[in-house]
Amino acid sequence: MVDKSDLTENLGSNNIKNELNSDINDNAIEELLILRQTIEEKNEIIENLKKENEDLKNLSIRLKADFENYKKRVKEENKDLIRFSNQRLLQDLLPIIDDFDRAIASIPADKMEDPIFKGLTIILTNFHNLLEQKYNLKKINELNVPFDPLLHEAISLVEDPSANGMMVAEVFLPGYKIDERVLRAAKVLVKRGVSKTCDHVKEDKDMKTNLNEKEKNEPAKISEEQEKQYEDNKEINKTE
Predict the structure, then answer these.
(1) Residue 162 has pLDDT above 90, yes or no
(2) How far is it, in rounded angstroms, from Cα 166 to Cα 204?
(3) CATH class of 87-239
């Protein structure tokens, strides 16, 4: 026969165990939930840090690219600054260069072998070479080339059946340029073919604009001074 007191004691012990197990399970679940929440928070922090790191990496790449572009731009600007820093000085020298050219051109042919005149010619040639090689100053004095309003200033216009469009026939005063920057346009006589075709329309317009601007200040005909310049520069072209 089972003792009631033993049964009661066993039941009480089982209840305590069940309660303890229940408390342990509840605590474990709570700890697991807390741990899970902590892990999620840490993962969120890690993801945010990864995103910030990626953003900083992209920003670093952009800044590096911007800095490289800035260095290239500064380098090009410095090149242009060096290239054109002497532009004003060279422009001031052009009238003096013209005077030297005219002086050499006025020397009689039979006197060119004179040591003094020969020395002056060599000095002028060396001076032109220096300006071209060191400062990239180039003369605009080509003949029989298409008229370009950016390079040429038309002093007069003549009709020529043999001309193919608008062509430079004579150079009264040479022009000069540094690379593609024109310091002074060449003063020229332009010849034009008699026949008018569609190809001449734009050239005619450029020529008329150029001549109209010129006629505001002086007549279209060549003056005595221009004729003198023309003769002098013919001699210059021969010597070159």
Answers:
(1) no
(2) 8
(3) mainly beta
Amino acid found at 37? Q
HSE-up of residue 94 (Cα within 13 Å, Cβ side): 21
Q: For residue range 90-128, what is the model confidence (pLDDT) as tens digits?
A: 989 999 999 999 988 888 888 888 888 888 889 999 999
The pair of three-digit structure tokens given for residue 215, joined into one six-digit string: 């006629």
Q: Of residues 113 and 174, which shows the higher confidence score?
A: 174
Report d(CA 7, CA 65) in Å as an integer.
85
* DSSP H helices in 173-219: 201-215
Domain borders along the chain are: 1-85, 87-239
Q: pTM of the entire structure?
A: 0.52
- For residues 171 and 230, give the distance between their C-alpha atoms in angstroms, rounded to a whole number: 7
User: What φ, ψ does residue 113 adopt, rounded to 5°?
Assistant: -85, -5
